[in-house]
Each structure stands twice: as structure tokens, then as C-alpha cells.
């Protein structure tokens, strides 16, 4: 029983650096994960169209303008012709 206390003390001393290293690695991985999540959120906010306040025209029309229309892709998709032809439909 007298041998148990010194062995336990040595085991605890040897385990302390391993636990600290594990904690440091966990903190590093958590920091990297949070950084990647913030980058993804930033990219999401940049890709979602942003709109200004609605404007009411005298005739009753309501206009909601995009704040940065030059950043948005073309709203009218071009039709692709699957079959070659002269452009007439049958």
C-alpha cells in the first residue's frame, strides 16, 4: 500500500503534459473551426442579394432596388439549344 502513493504521484506528473498538449490541440482545432465558419458566413452574406428600402411611386407601384446590381449574375438565363436546327419549331 505504501508503493501506491508514489506510483500514483508519478503517473499524475507524467499525465499532466499529455493533458496540456491535448488541451492545446483542442483549442487550436476549435479556433480553426470557428475561423472557417466565419469565412463561410462572410461568403454567404456576400452572395445573398441586398436590397434597399421599398419606394412607393405616385401611381402605386412599389420598387425595391438592389443595392449592388453589378455584383449579381445575369437574371435572364440564356436558353441552350439541345438540338441543332435552323431555329424554327415544328
Automatic annotation (TrEMBL):
Question: Where would one find the signal peptide in this protein?
Answer: 1-20
Region (Disordered): which ranges? 63-90
Give the source species: Dongia rigui
Task: Please identify the protein, giving its name as recorded.
Answer: AAA+ family ATPase
Q: Where is the composition biased (Acidic residues)?
A: 77-90
What does the organism's lineage look like at the top? Bacteria, Pseudomonadati, Pseudomonadota, Alphaproteobacteria, Rhodospirillales
Recorded superkingdom: Bacteria
Q: Which UniProt keywords apply?
A: Signal
